């Protein structure tokens, strides 16, 4: 399913198989990808690498470790990771897990790949990255710095019969369903979202969310 208007975009898991493509998402958001990766297996990881753009991860479940410019941090449920352009990073998971990944437009050489030190040479840093531990990730980032495209990235659990109401959004806001289902109302549209579905909402949109049986979602605010 794909719904696209000047105010919002909704994509299902099977219509969101993109990562570094540059012209798929609307120009009003700096995100080029907002993609859940459900049901990942223990032992999964990636080699040390860097990118020609920024990348963010939200680990919505699972435990492991992430390396960010030679610093090691534990991964627990709800851990957010920001890796700016030129930051060398990798992760390794010790349990099954789910996560959500986001990337920004490519810069410099615009290589849509994992750029490695061995094959492509040293990284040129931009700004420091950061990791927000899961137990502390309960609101806006304390310090997002000058490059990070998001001010908030965290898990939102909705109990059975719970929802999120609000007036017109003051900033762009994006949601991904990780588990359960969510009824999303947008202006004159109402749609049911299931695991893997994402909704990108432009500032000024009126939105409401409600879950009949409970849901785990990922919230990204610019």
List SSEs in N-to-C order.
Answer: EEEEEEEEEEHEEEEEEEEE
CATH class of the largest domain: Mainly Beta
Number of strands: 19
Tell me about the largest β-sheet: 6 strands, antiparallel
Count up the helices.
1
Flag low-confidence runs: none
Write the layout of secondary structure elements.
Elements (H helix, E strand, L loop, with lengths): L1 E3 L3 E4 L21 E8 L4 E5 L5 E7 L2 E5 L2 E5 L3 E5 L5 E5 L3 E7 L13 H4 L9 E3 L19 E7 L4 E2 L8 E8 L1 E5 L2 E5 L4 E4 L5 E4 L4 E7 L1
Antiparallel strand pairs: 1-2, 2-17, 3-10, 4-9, 5-8, 5-10, 6-7, 6-9, 8-11, 12-19, 13-18, 14-17, 14-19, 15-16, 15-18
Question: Can you put this structure into words, describing what you see?
Answer:
There is one protein chain. The chain is mainly β. It folds into two domains: 18-144, Jelly Rolls, CATH 2.60.120.10; 155-221, Sandwich (Jelly Rolls). The protein is built from one helix and 19 strands. A six-stranded antiparallel β-sheet has the order 1-2-17-14-19-12, with no helix packed on it. A five-stranded antiparallel β-sheet has the order 3-10-5-8-11, with no helix packed on it. Strands 4-9-6-7 form a four-stranded antiparallel β-sheet, with no helix packed on it. The protein starts with a strand and ends with a strand. 38% of the residues are buried.
Give structural attributes.
mainly beta; Jelly Rolls; 2% helix; 222 residues; 5-stranded antiparallel sheet; 45% strand; 1 helix
In short:
The protein is an all-beta fold and 222 residues long. The chain has one helix spanning 117-120; strands at 2-4, 8-11, 33-40, 45-49, 55-61, 64-68, 71-75, 79-83, 89-93, 97-103, 130-132, 152-158, 163-164, 173-180, 182-186, 189-193, 198-201, 207-210, 215-221.
